[in-house]
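User:
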Amino acid sequence: MHAALTLRRRSAEPRSARLAAERPDVRRHLDWATAHFGDPRVAVWHWPGPLGGARTREQVRERLRIQAAQCARDGYTLWMWREIGSGELIGQIGLQPADVEGERVIEVGWSVAPERWGQGFATEAARVSLEWGFERAGLREIVSFAMVENASSLRVMEKLGMAYERVFPRAGVPHALYRVRHGEWQRSRPAPVGSIEHE
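Assistant: Predicted structure:
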């Protein structure tokens, strides 16, 4: 076999030990995403109060279209993540532009199917997304935020090595803001997860 065939090649999307990311695609992901973001257990954490709650099918379609365009433009997005062992979609996790009190930022965010909560998927995929953002996209810092009542998401931020910064209002609801800079992430990052290359 030619030696070149044995070289490791870069993957088109992130990957972890249990999960593989897919670029958002309306044809492939609309049905799953409509059910997911139409679930009140999910929507309450993403669109509280005046933000309108559960999303409609057309709203989800537009989200996927925007996210696919973002991925083509920037090389990152809120990817759809599929469990390698079962082939099932488990959530949408990754990087997206956001606004925090007038500051333009890149946020790492996650939304995991309720039946898969507590299995560590948010932390696993978000950690890979941070690696992708810093190592592939050249980002200098990444933030995350969640409603102050969302203890599970705040724990994920802490597991990722992000530092608490402050509470700020978002749609009239208090949110906790966390941030990590590239240098801080390099010093505190866990052992490599093998996320941006595969055979």
